Every structure is written in structure tokens, then in C-alpha cells.
Amino acid sequence: MNVLLIGSGGREHALAWKIAASPVLGTLYCAPGNPGIAEEATCIDMDITDHKAIVAFCAEAEISLVVVGPEAPLVEGLVDDLQAAGIPAFGPTAAAAQLEGSKGFTKDLCARFNIPTGAYMRFNNAPKAKAYAREMGAPIVIKADGLAAGKGVTVARTLNEAFAAIEDCFEGAFGEAGAEVVVEEFLEGEEASFFCLCDGTNALPLTTAQDHKCVGDGDTGANTGGMGAYSPAPVMTDELVQRTMDEIINPTLKGMAEMGAPFTGVLYAGLMITRKGPELIEYNVRFGDPECQVMMMRLKDDILMLMKAATDGLLWTMSARWRDEAALCVVMAAKGYPGSYRKGTVIDNLEAANALHDVEIFHAGTARNGDKIVANGGRVLGVTALGTTVGQAHQQAYMAVDLIDWDDGFCRRDIGWRAIKREEQ
Ligand code: AMP
Ligand code: GLY
Asked: Residues with Cβ within 6 A of ligand 1?
């Protein structure tokens, strides 16, 4: 079968790498892709907001499955437009993608179907939002309702911080995404990310991963899209996985189907493991980046068959098996990220790093300039390794990082520290 993958990040490179290994694959195309993806797929220079062009390409290239990587095209209804044209697509419809596209929508779903999450209210003006924050007291969490590239959430330690965040949202700091604000109870505990494949009715649990959102070592500094990840995340015991399925994932699928928006694709639950058990912080409707990189390194089964089964409503026939080894991904970013950074700086010695045992280097913001790979974004490379423990995967990944010659790049040096501390106990 011919497949079209949509996206150009490290997540999509990891997906392309894994899809390319499928025995049932004909030709893999990717729009728009990047130089790393181009090693696995034929990259198509296409505007991915132009749904008509994508539909026309699918007909011409006899595409049997479109895999949508990022959230924005899902929220904008790419899957709906493909389905209307009779083209099977992996990912939720716009109605189902509201689980990520509107935090208020998800909170209302939780309230209606008894899914554990923090207390909350939705607001469309600052005075009422502030009054509720005052009533709840600090710490308190302020969220822009819509998609804000991971930047729309403020965990306010004081009421003044909360008021400032509320004002920022309504003054347009996040554009349309902040026209509505959710004020939410602060949940205390350890965070974990949990992933499922869904086919509208059934959920197949995948595995767990842990992201590192802060830019600096020791989880300090500004929030980013993610500076590294590892899988599995030891905080999610089998018992917690079962409770998450019973109390959060399955009620969500049932609720979405009941509301006429059955969910198909990857459901990524951001969880807080509180004293009461798992509570939902938020949903994403796609794989995490860089969580996908570590998951694809550990997946033993054919991702393409799994995605096809999810799209066809046949997930109950499938299982997903994982390598016992841990995987760990270190993100190399351009100096200055998540603030402003330079583009076009040369990255050397990638081949030597990629040749290390059990190491894969996934490209995110890279471009080709003649025979050189150059930086072309904030997060640029995802250096990913397997190891018998998280500690060994960490060592192997940093050995590869240290071989890469890129003066303008930086990374955190402590990816996996929580799990490594547990392993050393
Ligand atoms: P997000 O960008 O939506 O993933 O949220 C960013 C981060 O804010 C999460 O990873 C949590 O660390 C934190 N956060 C969001 N909601 C809450 C909450 N209700 N309680 C505590 N922390 C939260
Ligand atoms: N790494 C966080 C995310 O993909 O949302």
C-alpha cells in the first residue's frame, strides 16, 4: 500500500523510519518532510493547509492511507476532507480533535462522563475569571482554550501571577486561542504521558513515556515543545495503566461516540498521578514529539498495520509488543531556543553518530544546503538510543550527541534523570 505522511518534525521522521520497515508498504510519500525523512520517503513540496491539493495528490499517487502527524491539520479537518473524498486517513476528525483543540471541551467531557480531573470553570472575560481564581486560591492553573503551540498554560504560584496570565490571554497573547480561558485546580503529583491507539470504539494501550519540557538541566528555564524523552516511564505501573484505561480512556471513547464524534487515531493523555490516582491534565490527539521517537525505537510490531487497523475499526484484532530495552531521546536545539535563534548553521559528523550501535538520529528542523545539513528550526535533531536500562540508553545517546559537530547547537545533559535515579536506588 502507498502511504502519505503529513508533517516535517522529529515525530514524523520517527514515523517514516518505522513505516518504511513495514512489509506491506508500497511507496512512502511525505509532505513536506525534511532531509532526514527524505532518506525514508519521497518528499513532496506541498502546502499542507491546502486540503484540495492533498486530495488530488492522493488520487494521483494511489494512496491507501494518509497518516497525519501534527495536531493543526487534524483540528483544521484534514481527515474529514480526506474521508469525504473516499481516502482512508489515520487520525481524528475535526470534531474528535477538539479533545486537543479546546481545553474547555475536554473539561466538559470529563465533567459529563465522570473522568477524574481538576475542578475548573470556563470564562470569556477577565473579571469573572479572576473572581474564580481568587475563590480557588493559589497555586492555580490558567489555560488558553485553543491551540497555542504548548505555550498557553500558566501554572501560577501566586494570585498576582494568575491575574497577569488571565489578562495576557484576554489581551491576545495567544490570539484566538485565548479568547476563552479555563481556570483549573492545581494538581499535585508526578506527571506521566500515556498513549493509546483508538478505532472509534476500542483503545489499544501503547506504552508510556516521559517528556522533559523545560529548556534547562534540572527542569529549569522556559517551557519548550520537549527537550528529550524516555520510554518506558517507571511511574506508570501496570495497576496505574489499568486504572487509566478504566477511569479515563474508555469513558472518553464511550463519551465521544455517544456525542457523535467517535475518536480514531492516537490519544495521548497527559496525566498527573495524584494521591487519589491518575487524573487527566490534558489530551493530545497525536503522538508526542519527542515521545514518538522513543516509542518507535521500542515498538516490535508493524506500525502501519496498527494504524490501518485503527482506521478500519479493527483494533481488537491487534496487539502491540515492545522491546524490553529502554529508549531515550536527546533533543539538540539551536542556541536561543525557545526564544529567537539562527538558521543555516552547518551540522557535521552526523553519519558517524548515526553509525553507533542502537542509535538513530531523527531530523526535525533541518534543511539541506548542497551536500551539507544545516539547522532550519528551533528543535533540530532527536538523538535516540536503546539501552538495557534508561541509564545505558542515556550513555549511548550522549555518546552520539558528543560526536555531532554543531557549534550553534545545545542540549540538556540530564535527560532521563528521574528514571536513572530510580534505577540507582
Ligand atoms: P501543557 O502545555 O498543556 O502540556 O501544560 C503544560 C504543563 O502545565 C503540564 O505538563 C503540567 O506540568 C502543567 N499543568 C497543566 N495543568 C495542570 C494542573 N491542573 N495542575 C498542575 N499542573 C498542570
Ligand atoms: N512533547 C510534548 C508534545 O508533543 O505535546
From this structure: 118, 141, 150, 153, 155, 184-187, 191, 213, 270, 272, 281-282
